[in-house]
Write a structure and sequence with these properties.
Elements lengths: L4 E4 L2 H11 L3 E3 L3 E4 L4 E9 L10 E11 L1 E7 L9 E10 L2 E6 L3 E7 L4 E12 L14
Antiparallel strand pairs: 1-10, 2-7, 3-4, 4-5, 5-10, 6-9, 7-8, 8-9
Length: about 140
């Protein structure tokens, strides 16, 4: 399989990126805001959801998530000074020119944008893992 190279210019495009980044892990040290360039970058350890599920061996890879036109970055539940902290991404959303990254443990990033322009690019060699993320529904979540 080839590396992913995706670009989101609207909310529909971002749904594809969010799906591919679900359960990705990032160290706070791998988050960088460059205000002079209006750019925010996160390097994730991404589970390769695009791989077939009929295997017992899955893959993870490094992926750069770069967002352009960033005017402000707001943090909830963590600080950039917590460099060793690891965060698990649950979802990427977009509303009212704000891109929101929701992490497990009630942590979040809110990027205020002029307009949406985000890219997800895999890099490096993938590595095998036997652990596939699971999402069990609780009984009170069923219709």
């Amino acid at each position: 399989m080839s590396d992913l190279k995706l670009r989101a210019l609207d909310a529909e495009d971002l749904v594809v990126i969010s799906t591919q980044l679900q359960d990705a892990i990032a160290a706070v040290a791998d988050m960088h805001y460059a205000p002079s360039e209006s750019r925010f970058l996160v390097v994730f350890n991404r589970f390769r959801w695009e791989m077939p599920d009929d295997s017992e061996i899955f893959e993870r890879t490094h992926a750069a998530f770069e967002v352009h036109n960033v005017q402000q970055v707001l943090f909830r539940g963590f600080a950039l000074s917590e460099r060793e902290r690891m965060l698990e991404l649950l979802q990427v959303g977009f509303e009212d020119n704000e891109l929101i990254l929701l992490f497990a443990g009630d942590a979040a990033l809110r990027l205020k944008l002029n307009k949406l322009d985000a890219r997800l690019v895999d890099f490096g060699e993938p590595w095998p893992t036997t652990r596939r993320p699971r999402h069990d529904l609780l009984s009170d979540e069923l219709p």
